[in-house]
Amino acid sequence: MDEKYDVIVLGTGLKECILSGLLSVSGKKVLHMDRNKYYGGASASLSPLEELYKHFGLEEQPPEQMGRGRDWNVDLIPKFLMANGQLVKLLIHSGVTRYLEFKSVEGSYVYKKGGKIHKVPSTEAEALSSSLMGLLEKRRFRNFVSWVGSYDEKKESTHKGVDPKKPMKAAFEKHGLEQNTIDFVGHALALYRDDAYINEPCGPTISRIQLYSESIQRYGKSPYLYPLYGLGELPQGFARLSAIYGGTYMLDKPVDEIVYEGGKVVGVKSKDEVVRTDCVIGDPSYFADKVKKTGQVVRCICIMNHPIPNTKDALSCQIILPQNQVGRSSDIYISCVSFAHNVSTKGYYLAMVSTNVETSNPEEELRPGLDLLGPIQKKFVSVDDIFEPTDNGLDSRVFVSKSYDATTHFETTCDDVLDIFRELLVKPLTSPRSRHKWRQLSNSPLLH
């Protein structure tokens, strides 16, 4: 094949489709290839329901009471969008919102040692009414929330003695917060995956809590959104965007070899053809020689005919079990959606429980989360390796995304996408068809 592309993107996971769309809009000539016949890659949305059974190697058929298979759209790695977060901004910035319809998630909860879940308080009023804390702690937390809400790194008068460079530990100590409160602030509001942030500068943590608060103010019930018909709509939306701007898509296309000359990528071989390019982007499954395994994630998709108990019959919700509350080194995450999001037959719910693997019995590690769900009609358990690239790709011009983590939100996913895009900006791609569009996208505040 004599034709040359500015960029070849391998895999149609959400990260790769976002990059394909953004690069096409910026004037790049993009070829997008996937060995699979469907969009989404590891994060695909499976429909009909029979496809889910087949994906997990089950020969049995779904029971009749689960209704028509085509009424189901089951995400293999469900994640929620922060209403004011990075992915929503990317959707608006790129215009992909025209292809999608969203519905707010009804509740955001946090687990406290002892087996109970509580609504995550994010405002002063919720702090005073929360059952998560005692009376005196409610007041201390209310003061903390008020302080965070007015905090501005550029205005020293709002710091109240806590400089942005001071560790977050200093902010907690200033307000006298108890350890249980610190756990849910760090993991359910700031959405950190471990406690390293406590000894790091407090500025980023305060910004994360402010993002949570800003997102919840947009819809009231929770800070999260979820697309109707499942996450499969997201990569397809960015694929449509790419196609409108000249991007070429090839599904069911084998990738046999990444071709290099002098250590730099020059093309991708598929059967007897070599497609020429100056840059390749893709998910870890295409680059065994450029990734390292950093751990594993265990996930359990659960089909239920009832809402999760103690969530006020919420049709959708997120629950975070902070690591310290369950005696682990990693949080456990639960996401739940239902027929209200057009992902299941009426009356049915889809819950996902996930966490990082820490023992030789991964499924048992999900037990604290599974115990919160009530009766489960059917479970589908998977254990997936987590990979990260071994270098930043600047020398080889091969940029590899990270595997999807255990979190139930898209903030870490967007961090990875924007990190790759920033690396591309270090040495901009050659032969831009539209320098104006490239400069316009490069200067977007999303990328800085």
TrEMBL record:
Compartment(s): Cytoplasm; Golgi apparatus, trans-Golgi network
Keywords from the UniProt entry: Cytoplasm, Golgi apparatus, GTPase activation
Record SUPFAM superfamilies: FAD/NAD(P)-binding domain
Keyword Cytoplasm: yes
One example GO MF annotation: Rab GDP-dissociation inhibitor activity
Single GO biological process annotation from the record: small GTPase-mediated signal transduction
UniProt main location, coarse: cytoplasm
Pfam families per the UniProt record, alphabetical: GDI (PF00996)
Keyword presence, Cytoplasm: yes
Cellular component GO terms held in the UniProt record: Golgi apparatus
Its job: Regulates the GDP/GTP exchange reaction of most RAB proteins by inhibiting the dissociation of GDP from them, and the subsequent binding of GTP.
Family classification: Belongs to the Rab GDI family.
PANTHER family referenced in this protein's UniProt entry, alphabetically: RAB GDP DISSOCIATION INHIBITOR, RAB GDP-DISSOCIATION INHIBITOR
UniProt protein name: Rab GDP dissociation inhibitor
Provenance organism: Geodia cydonium
